[in-house]
Write a structure and sequence with these properties.
This protein folds into 2 domains: 4-152, Beta Barrel (Cathepsin D, subunit A, domain 1); 165-302, Beta Barrel (Cathepsin D, subunit A, domain 1), CATH 2.40.70. It contains 4 helices and 24 strands. The strands form 4 sheets. Strands 13, 14, 15, 16, 17, 18, 19, 20, 21 and 22 form a 10-stranded mixed β-sheet that branches. Strands 8-7-2-3-10-4-9 form a 7-stranded mixed β-sheet. The chain has a 5-stranded antiparallel β-sheet with strand order 1-12-11-23-24, with no helix packed on it. The radius of gyration is 19 Å and the shape is globular. By secondary structure, the protein is mainly beta. The termini are far apart. Helix content is 11%, strand content 40%.
Length: 311
């Protein structure tokens, strides 16, 4: 019998093959390949159907695997197998997720049969997450200001990075940034619908805690639950050629969340502690940019559109 890692790997490859081919991305596109997305709440969400039921799919570069919500599974009559549940790790804790039975996902008139998708509990504004492997076969361009995305042939498109980029231990893209003059490697995370999240160690090593505004509740999209965070506001943040005089970030009040944990996590959006990850770059910064990235060539280009002059 196949183990859970083998099952999940096969599922990831299947979804990636079906959706990520630049010759046939299964969503309505304009003549330039742009696909509109629902950006309400700071996420990249596409509309599909699952077993003929309307559904919203979240595109999340920070997620290691794809997941399905329990609410959508019930609505679309998708079976779950609790005997084959796996443990998933979110920003604020871990959850047990059974694997789904077979279901049909339809997009732009094309129908795909999927199975063995982990099913997560909780209240979400989306019905399914497509994680990092969804993006790995293409050059992806996200136009946040105009809420549109397109997938381009990586063999036909060539561009230069204007930021320093590294992989983390799980193959995700990290961007070099300078936070109050301190270098930090931030995860490119299209699934983070709030401001940046920093590791506690990074905050205290660089004395950033003195800029704390207070304590608040923070919830990010994905499998994580709400956690209690301290919020800081800084007057100096640099990302590639761009400098910001206002940067809001958060860090967890304790070491109990997965970002600051010392333990290796399986099926997690958070890599092991000895990685170079210092934080997560979320919507509050990304919303300003047209972001172009290529996982296979480890490249990211950020473009900040100029405001249109009033006529």
């Amino acid at each position: 019998m196949e183990n859970h890692k083998t099952i999940i790997k096969k599922c990831l490859l299947t979804i990636c093959f079906l959706f990520c081919s630049t010759k046939g991305v299964a969503f309505n596109k304009d003549s330039n390949g742009w696909i509109p997305f629902d950006g309400e709440g700071g996420n990249i969400v596409l509309n599909v159907t699952m077993n003929a039921q309307p559904a919203k799919v979240l595109l999340d570069t920070g997620a290691s695997i794809h997941t399905l919500t329990s609410k959508m599974a019930e609505k679309a009559n998708i079976s779950s197998n609790h005997a084959r549940a796996i443990t998933l790790i979110g920003l604020n804790g871990k959850v047990k997720a059974p694997l789904s039975g077979t279901f049909d996902l339809a997009a732009d008139g094309q129908i795909f049969s999927l199975r063995d998708i982990p099913i997560i509990q909780g209240s979400h504004s989306f019905d399914m997450i497509l994680g990092r492997t969804f993006f790995e076969q293409s050059v992806v361009q996200v136009d946040y200001p105009n809420q549109r995305i397109r997938f381009l042939d990586s063999d036909a498109v060539n561009f230069n990075s204007n930021v320093e980029v590294r992989y983390d231990l799980s193959g995700r893209l990290l961007i070099e940034s300078y936070i109050k003059g301190n270098k930090g490697w931030m995860l490119l995370d299209t699934g983070s619908n709030t401001f940046a999240v920093l590791k506690r160690d990074f905050v205290f090593q660089n004395d950033l805690d003195e800029f704390a505004l207070g304590v608040g509740e923070l919830e990010v999209a994905g499998i994580s639950e709400t956690g209690e965070f301290n919020v800081i506001e800084l007057d100096d943040f640099k990302l590639g050629p761009y400098r910001f005089d206002s940067f809001v970030a958060s860090y967890n009040k304790n070491y109990q969340n997965s970002l600051d944990s010392k333990t290796r996590r399986v099926y997690s959006r958070i890599p092991v502690d000895n990685s170079i990850l210092d934080g997560i770059l979320g919507y509050d910064i990304l919303k300003n940019f047209i972001v172009t990235f290529d996982y296979s060539k480890k490249k990211i280009h950020l473009y900040l559109p100029q405001p249109q002059a009033a006529e």
